[in-house]
Design brief:
The structure is a single chain. It is built from seven helices and eleven strands. It has helices spanning 22-31, 45-48, 55-72, 101-106, 115-124, 163-173, 203-212, and strands at residues 3-9, 34-39, 42-43, 78-85, 94-97, 128-131, 149-154, 176-180, 192-196, 216-219, 232-233. Strands 1, 2, 3, 4, 5, 6, 7, 8, 9, 10 and 11 form an eleven-stranded mixed sheet that branches. β4 and β5 form a beta hairpin. It starts with a strand and ends with a strand.
Length: 237
């Protein structure tokens, strides 16, 4: 038996672009057979540096989607914390795996860093730094030595993520490949994530599994037709 983990999901409680109640999203993932969901709400200045809020209040808001989904799915699926980070002055997005509530509270305003600064910071703190959908319009691919990985499959059918280019680039550079549905909307098609031989139950285990490349990328749904992608074992990268 293999276990499904979603690596890219947004909740309506935090991400302004998400408009499906998190409870409905959760039920869809249970129906699709996922055992773990990584909540990657947007971490950017408009969300974490809202005027009139203290840092603690800002973090309470940022963590509210993760906490609500974790409570709702208690005992039915594992819910882990991640984030989709956007640095000030940039339109690029980065998935960050390995963060905890305590870590985010103790390290404020990560969005104010530069790519080189955060890359070094991530390595010092055992985080994985993955560029999300790097070949969409308005995105700029960064130098690979700053990254741990590339999202080679993004299942958001509302964007042309050019997954075939991301796949080729990650393979050429030897970067860790990830896959995610980028779940936001009522019409989102659950189509991404990873398959593993054991369920992923902690952020530490998630980071270890991604580093090991002992998993299969889930590449399904409408966006899998982009370049005729299919489920791929990460060891191929």
């Amino acid at each position: 038996m293999q276990y499904k983990t979603e690596l890219h999901l947004h909740t309506d409680l935090v991400s302004p672009c998400a408009d499906l109640p998190y409870t409905e999203a959760a039920e869809r993932y249970l129906e699709a057979g996922y055992t773990t969901i990584v909540v990657t709400d947007h971490y950017s200045r408009p969300i974490v540096e809202r005027e009139g809020r203290s840092w603690e209040e800002s973090m309470d808001h940022f963590l509210s989607g993760y906490r609500a989904m974790k409570e709702y799915l208690d005992g039915r699926a594992n819910v882990l914390l991640g984030c989709e980070l956007r640095f000030d002055g940039s339109r690029n997005d980065y998935l960050v795996f390995g963060v905890t509530e305590e870590f985010l509270r103790q390290n404020p305003t990560l969005n104010r860093m530069s790519v080189p600064e955060f890359s070094a910071f991530a390595k010092e703190n055992g985080l994985l730094f993955v560029q999300a959908h790097p070949f969409r319009n308005s995105m700029t691919i960064v130098k690979p030595h700053f990254l741990d990985g590339i999202e080679v499959f993004n299942g958001h059918k509302g964007h042309d993520s050019r997954n075939f280019l991301a796949h080729a680039y990650a393979k050429h550079c030897g970067l860790i490949p990830t896959s995610g549905t980028d779940f936001h909307h009522p019409d989102s098609v659950i189509s991404g994530g990873i398959l593993t031989d054991a369920p992923i139950t902690s952020v530490e285990q998630l980071v270890a599994v991604l580093k090991s490349r002992d998993y299969t990328l889930i590449c399904e749904g409408p966006c899998a037709r982009d370049g005729d992608l299919h489920n791929i074992h990460a060891s191929e990268f």
